[in-house]
């Protein structure tokens, strides 16, 4: 099963090879899918290679070979024109995300940089990066993905380099693992504890200290719903 963007890229490559016999450049692919950088194209090409839809020909520049095509892509390739549908998402002043809008084996979520699981850092946002996520781990509402930087949550099974799947929310139950915005500029992944009139952001590593803030200094931006790990 291909994601929507992988399907669109495969169709574009197929059309260009049919028309000219030459693979499109990464810049041409980026422009066709209306991405802002080539890093997203690299991810899509790698995904298509892993699924054995294409392969790169060695020692040749811009050389891609299509190994197979889904039936839906073949039908679309025979039609006139190419108009990729680009997933758009936005949270306004919060971190952007994506809604589960269609039934499929996987869903593409925006991947917005690395979040500290140690000392809070400002969240990085790259609107060109996406990640494939099994649809079964997502519930209703909007979701986004963040890469973990640090080891303060290792006792909760969250390791440095993991990708966490976040459901957008501005509230969370006591004890939930949340994305917390501190002082309007620093973001961290911690367990939420309410203690009297204060909010505690609790690590899951005995080598780190719990940080306690007045409620007005902490804003919840999402709650952990899943985790992806590459070996």
Describe this structure in words.
- There is one protein chain.
- The protein has 231 residues and is α+β, with helices and mostly antiparallel strands.
- Helix content is 19%, strand content 31%.
- It contains four helices and twelve strands.
- It has helices at residues 4-20, 26-32, 39-50, 71-77, and strands at 54-56, 64-66, 98-99, 106-116, 130-134, 142-149, 163-167, 177-182, 186-195, 198-202, 211-213, 218-228.
- The strands form two sheets. Strands 3, 4, 5, 6, 7, 8, 9, 10, 11 and 12 form a ten-stranded mixed β-sheet that branches. Strands 1-2 form a two-stranded antiparallel sheet.
- Helix 1 (4-20) crosses helix 3 and helix 1 (4-20) packs across helix 4 (71-77).
- The longest helix has 17 residues, at 4-20.
- The radius of gyration is 20 Å and the shape is elongated.
- The two termini are 22 Å apart.
Q: How would you concisely characterize the structure shown here?
A:
The chain has helices spanning 4-20, 26-32, 39-50, 71-77, and strands spanning 54-56, 64-66, 98-99, 106-116, 130-134, 142-149, 163-167, 177-182, 186-195, 198-202, 211-213, 218-228.
N- and C-termini, Cα separation: 22 Å
Poorly predicted tracts of residues: 72-94, 99-104
Number of helices: 4
Q: Structural class, please?
A: alpha+beta
Provide keyphrases for this structure.
4 helices; ten-stranded mixed beta sheet; alpha+beta; single chain; two-stranded antiparallel sheet; 231 residues
